[in-house]
Write a structure and sequence with these properties.
Layout (H helix, E strand, L loop, with lengths): L4 E3 L1 H30 L8 H25 L1 E3 L15 E6 L5 E7 L10 E3 L3 H6 L7 E4 L7 E9 L1
Parallel strand pairs: 1-2, 4-5
Antiparallel strand pairs: 3-4, 3-7, 6-7
Helix pairs in contact: 1-2
Length: 158
């Protein structure tokens, strides 16, 4: 059974753009590689042809997976996101109680998660700990080694 995919409106647009790119320009590039490889002659011993066909198979699989993700996606309505509590689609400001560092995270569905951009999945340890909490709450996040991190929610934005 496919897992529910939760997307923000921005994530939905990014997914559609990626499918459009892979289905259009990328698919044509791979087809051109296959055509060029065929011109080398006997395809039974042609490694360029084999590589191009493998690339085509992987591309088609990726397109199918992304289209399936799009079909099963639930898009978070930006108007329904409130700042009362942390939820998917909100941006939350937290302050680490130990280091006094402030960080801003956007809570997104797992398919949009990108820690380098501070986009945390609602299924990640920090995301799970923050979901449903309110401004001023202190959450405890388990870490692999040492005591749990304590994060205080300082602000929630839609």
């Amino acid at each position: 059974m496919p897992k529910d995919v939760i997307l923000t409106p921005q994530g939905l647009e990014e997914l559609k753009s990626k499918i459009e790119y892979l289905s259009g320009p990328r698919r044509r590039e791979v087809a051109e590689r296959i055509k060029e490889a065929r011109e080398f002659g006997d395809i039974s011993e042609n490694s360029e042809y084999d590589d191009a066909k493998n690339e085509q198979a992987m591309l088609e699989k990726q397109i199918a997976e992304l289209e399936e993700k799009l079909r099963s996606a639930t898009v978070i309505d930006a108007k329904s996101v409130t700042t009362d509590a942390v939820s998917v689609g909100t941006t939350v400001h937290v302050k680490d109680q130990k280091t006094d560092k402030s960080v801003k995270y956007m809570i997104v569905g797992s398919s949009e998660a990108n820690p380098t951009e501070n986009k945390l999945s609602n299924e990640s340890p920090v995301g799970k700990a923050l979901i449903g909490k309110k401004r001023g709450d202190v959450v405890s996040v388990p870490v692999p080694r040492g005591p749990a991190r304590k994060l205080k929610i300082t602000k929630i934005e839609a």
